[in-house]
Prior knowledge:
Blueprint: H1 2-27, H2 35-60, H3 75-78
Amino acid sequence: MLKGLIVLLMIALVVTLGFGLYYLMIDRGDVKKTRLVNSLRVRVSIAGTLMALIVYGVATGQLGHQSPWDNRPSAESTE
């Protein structure tokens, strides 16, 4: 569940980045249009939520790493 939510938030980041690019090209620097700034606000809030979820996942043990080089043999098993 947590990993799926993280993937969903990453996809949302890419989508808001695309919207930001679209608004940048369409508005062409018009000061009265704030769509680009709003897109940035949404992207920053999604990124903050994503970072909080990753910290929560690592703190609760739901997220971690299982790389093969971290499984070093203990001193007892080598004897």
